[in-house]
Amino acid sequence: MNSQAGAINFTKGMPFSDGYVAGGTLYISGQQGPGPDGKLAGTDITVQTSNAIASIRKIVEEAGFVMSDVVSVTLYFTDLKDVPGINAVYKEEIPDPKPARAAVQVAGLIGGARVEISAIAVKR
Questions:
Q1: C-alpha distances out from residue 97 to 5, 68, 91, 122, Å
Q2: Coil, strand, or helix at residue 42?
Q3: How much is the pLDDT for 5?
Q4: Alpha helices in 63-94 (DSSP H)
Q5: Distance (Å, whole) CA 16 – CA 78
Q6: How many folded domains does the chain comprise?
Q7: 115: domain CATH number?
Q8: How does strand 70-77 pair with strand 100-105?
Q9: Residue 44 CB contacts under 8 Å (≥ 6 apart), including other chains
Q10: Tell me, what's the pLDDT at 1?
């Protein structure tokens, strides 16, 4: 796909695009990071975080961007106690310079996920 315009859809049958490119900007929907079987990968926060970032990477690359193009990330998580585990994975898997970031505790996430991550990337 080129980076000019269009939807990226890996999640079949859902009423949204996983990513959408408009004017050199890629908007990535919240990713929970399913395992290879397409289902949520257990309850371990580090595994869920790593898989969510891998899903973001897949969308970024499919759109013709690179991870260093990511300029903003929003984390949604269900338990403040999970933040150290999320941060440990995030520090390792998100390249420097780190994008701007917001972190929001929520009452719950679809499918029982403990973390969901959305992002915005800008073609440089």
A1: 26, 8, 11, 14
A2: coil
A3: 62
A4: 83-93
A5: 22
A6: 1
A7: 3.30.1330.40
A8: parallel
A9: none
A10: 47
Q: Note down pLDDT in tens along the chain; length 124 residues.
A: 444 567 887 766 777 889 999 999 999 999 997 777 778 877 899 999 999 999 999 999 999 999 999 999 999 999 999 999 999 999 999 999 999 999 999 999 998 999 999 999 999 8
Amino acid at 120: I
DSSP 108: -
**β-bridge partners, 102:** 74
Look up residue 54 and give its two tokens: 């891998």
Structural domain containing residue 37: 5-122
Q: For 103-109, which contacts have Cβ atoms below 8 Å and span 24 or more sequence positions?
A: 103/74, 103/75, 103/77, 104/74, 104/75, 104/76, 104/77, 105/76, 105/77, 105/78, 105/79, 105/80, 106/76, 106/77, 106/78, 107/78, 108/78, 109/32, 109/76, 109/78
